[in-house]
Amino acid sequence: MRKFLGLLLLSLLPVSANAASIFGNAFSVTNTRYGTVPGEARLASNGSDVFLFWISGGSVRVTKLVEGVKRVGRPVLPTTETTIDSFDVLWNGEHFFVAATDGLNIRGRLLTRDGEPAASDFIVNGNARSPRLAFNGSTILLLHRGIGFQGIGSLPLTKNGVAAGGGQAVQLMGDEFEVASNGTGFAAITVSFQNVLLTKFASNGVIAEQETLAGSAFGSTREVAIASDGARYLATYLQDHVGGAATLVDSSGHAGPIVSFMSDAHATYESPFATWTGSEYVLAFVGTTPDGASMHALHFDANGAKTTSDPEQPAHEVRTATALLPKNGRVLIAWNPREDAVVEELPVEGVSNVWATYGAAEQRLLASTASNAAALIVWNESLNGAASVHLGLRDRQGDWSERVLVNRGATRAIAASDGNAFVIVVTEADRTSTAYRVDSRGVVSSRTSTLPFEATGIAWNGQRYAIVGERVSATQDWTSDVVGATLDAAGTLSAVTVIRATIESDVAADDPAVASDGQNFLAIWRATDNPVCPFPCIVGTGVEGARLSGDLARLDATDLKLAPRDSVITQPAVAWNGFEYVVAYDNYISLWTVNVTASGAIATPRLVHDTKSRVGNPRIGVISDGLIALLFTDDGLPLFGGSPYDARHRFVMLQRDGTRVYAEDVIDGDSPDVRFVVEANRFDYLASQPLLDAPHHGASRVTMRVSVQGGPGVPVPGPLPPTNVTARLTLDGGRALIEWKASAYATGYRIEYRVADGSWNEVGAWYGRDTTSVSLTMPDNTAFRVRAFSDAGATAPSAPTPAVRLRVWKRRAVR
Fold first, then answer.
1. CA end-to-end span of the chain
2. Minimum mean pLDDT among 391-405, 501-515, 524-538, 710-724: which range?
3. Residue range 434-442: average pLDDT?
4. How many CA atoms within 13 Å lie on the side-chain side of 119?
5. Do 473 and 502 form a contact (C-beta atoms < 8 A)?
6. CA dist., res. 427 & res. 412, Å (int)
7. pLDDT of 98 strictly over 80
8. According to the model, what pLDDT value does residue 7 have?
9. Long-range contacts of 602-608 (CB under 8 A, 24+ apart)
10. C-alpha distance from residue 633 to each of 581, 651, 690, 692 (Å)
11. pTM for this one?
12. More confident position, 476 or 444
């Protein structure tokens, strides 16, 4: 079948990049799990409903709070920072306005009263970050920190977030700042050189007056908060190892007496937030002492006098953000115990997690390979603050199964197959590795003792696996030795062999990879000039290697020089194409290949791709008759002028002589978490990427794009969305029975559900092509819909069913 695929591609594929893709649409291949997710939180209300905003997975997310119901947050605005000071939100009477830092700018977006995007996002202010917002009924005042320096500036905006002009510098340096409005003007409390400064603004956002509330406090951090009752302001600040202070600012803009509260020489303070409830001010913050971190909530009367304190609650994490919102006489507080954004009602009495943020588990692709019958995928998964490694198998019919491999996270994994079973080598944070033997059903049959090195490459030669990696050199602690071990079919692991030792005044060797010609192996690595050479010296990196016997004995006395030491940046890749080894490497702006025969003869390197942007992370696969496929990243950022373009992965197919027979750009970002697997009659393109639509809601997922067999422009027919989808009670009344009509060309189905009027989520299981009826235990008032899947991708969801109202059956008494 591989020969057939190679001949088919040679006859049908164009020489240049094409418009029609050989791949179907991307779809999430893994099962979905939901749990609490990290997030720095803000609260906002449209006057009737309360919304929680937080940051997770590179986006500001929003969800409407419904007491007793967990909601999955929807991503609405990208952000490159993950703390509460990188975004803010307010209600302008018609829309929510969200502002967030995207790296170089502050971007904004309007949302409807239901939290849905009302328009596209836009740049609010360039070269700025850390937005703070206040609204007086007609003007939004934006306070921000500049890029490249710590100056604080202000910028008046229209009620829809458009710059109105008149921006001003508030102070030359600044670490902490907050702003509020009394319905007419604005007031901000800021920290500069540890001085606490109060700045009053007119209704148009122009500075009217400034005064110092507290002088310099060297060696001590201060954080600030401010709120208004509609006429006056309560300005507060917290000082590490000292305590807090508050002052009431009257309607004329003059600060009153400063009143101290809290006093603990052993405490540090952070994340204060203040609000006016309609009858009193409330201030919440986190205090950390040698006994741990706790959340505090203090109450002040209309004259700024402290009245009561709520019971302290363990904060669990030092970096705990607080946000307050008055609502119908209650005060809601959002905070982060154990990294979960949680909303409670003051006074807090234990963490209920009733309104915890909720989302799909984040995933990161680690490795992939294929046997004669199935594709194997390995990924990291993070859920509820815990990491684990999973494996999944997808057979030729599209059936999927998965299981947990390791109940902890991994920094790297590699995988290979002997044609039937698999070996997965997992590396953990301490840079040691463990090899797991997995049978054709995905069941772990054995595991090795710990390998005392970080495994980076694996290959099968028909009798045993070669596992290569790097280990800190015994003679040069600034570099590593290239080492390896073999694993035979019975699971016996050999002793570690040093393949390339680093000696004094020699080159550094790292990122080794390996391939086999069916008998021997070729190990390659990045070779870097000794970085401790006397000044002046130029440090360069190239690709070198050595041929190895089946037991990893060197066949070459000296290293093979495969690429010059200039600018090889990322890990090189190697494969055997049936005739010779093919090594792929980048030199920062271009991608090259070089062929090596089984006897060690090295051909002239060939240029595969040349751009003026950054390329790297090559992946290589063999099809048939010497035909190879390459996949590599292109970040789209020009190095020498020109306009940037979308980051992408480039897919290129080459004949033995280096002639390009096909090329395609896959625009899905430039993350190195991408692989492809060559199976008997197709390519499986795998990536880790965020999926924005329900039911994934922006979580990073392991996705698959499967090549069609007919070539570009001749796609395999995709299934239609399932029809006749119904949901009803089972006979006992405790489960929902979902049924649908089979969809032609489908290889499987996924069921999605929605509780009350919340977000669509996904049932964490695949259902095969022959399944058209499933019984599930679900919450009351749940609606359902079904998607069909095939190698062409996923269909749109079916029409939703009416919500199923579960009822408890009572046994009638027998008389």
1. 72
2. 524-538
3. 95
4. 14
5. yes
6. 5
7. yes
8. 46
9. 602/560, 602/561, 602/562, 605/562, 605/563, 606/658, 608/584, 608/652, 608/654, 608/658, 608/660
10. 22, 9, 17, 22
11. 0.84
12. 444
Give residue 111's pLDDT: 97
Check if the beta carbon of residue 697 is closer than 8 Å to that of residue 360: yes
Task: Compute CA distances 337 → 54, 257, 275, 343, 699, whole Å.
Answer: 14, 35, 21, 10, 21
**Tokens 């422009």 sit at which residue?**
713
**pLDDT tens-digit profile of 12-22?**
444 444 456 78
Where are the extended beta strands (E) located within 530-680? 541-548, 560-563, 573-576, 581-586, 590-596, 606-610, 613-624, 627-638, 648-654, 660-666, 674-678
Residue type for 491, please?
G
Look at residues 205, 172, 177 and name the one whose alpha carbon lies nearest to residue 190: 177
Determine the pLDDT at residue 534: 54
- Pairing of the two strands 497-500 and 122-126: unpaired
DSSP state of 717: P
Burial of residue 62, with CB atoms counted within 10 A of its CB: 0-12 exposed, 13-18 middle, 19 or more buried: buried
> How many Å apart are CA 775 and CA 83, to the nearest integer?
42
Identify the bridge partners of residue 109 per DSSP, sorted by sequence position.
98
Residue 716 — very low, low, confident or very high, per pLDDT cuts 50/70/90?
low
* CA distances in angstroms from 57 to 75, 131, 135, 277, listed in the order given: 9, 19, 28, 32
The CA distance from 731 to 665, in Å, is: 53
Tokens of 627: 């035909």
Q: What is the pLDDT of residue 483?
A: 95
Decide: residue 810, CB within 10 A, 0-12 exposed, 13-18 middle, 19+ buried: exposed
Q: Which amino acid is at 284?
A: A
Residue by residue, DSSP assigns 5-68 as HHHHHHHH--SSB-SS-SB---EE-S---EE-----EEEEESSS-EEEEEEETTEEEEEE-BTT
- Mean pLDDT of the region 165-169: 86
Query: Residue type at 99?
Result: A
Among 203, 211, 206, 101, which Cα is nearest to 159's? 203
Taking the mean position of all CA atoms in its chain, how far away is CA 487?
Answer: 34
Nearest to 133 by CA among 175, 173, 101: 101
Q: Check if the beta carbon of residue 180 is closer than 8 Å to that of residue 233.
A: yes
Closest CA to 67 of 357, 359, 355, 358: 355
Q: Over the chain, what is the mean pLDDT?
A: 86
Average pLDDT value for residue range 705-716: 65
Q: Could you report the per-residue pLDDT of 609-629, keeping only the tens digit for each? A: 987 788 999 999 998 888 999
Helices (H) and strands (E) in the chain, counts: 1, 67
Mean pLDDT of 547-552: 97
- CA dist list (Å): 556 to 523, 553, 563: 11, 9, 17
| Cβ pair 708, 716 in contact under 8 A | yes
C-alpha torsion angle, residues 398, 617, 83, 320 (rounded to 10): 70
How would DSSP label each residue in 197-210? EEEEE-TTS-EEEE
| Rounded Cα distance, 292 and 297, in Å | 17
Query: What integer pLDDT is reported at residue 504 of this predicted model?
Result: 56
Q: Which two tokens stand for residue 739?
A: 């049924």
Cβ count near 701 (within 10 Å): 25
Determine which helix (DSSP H) or strand (DSSP E) holds 449, and give its type and residue range: none
pLDDT in tens, 473-520: 776 666 788 999 999 988 899 999 999 987 655 677 889 999 999 999
Contacts of 130 (CB under 8 A, 6+ apart): 85, 86, 101, 144, 145
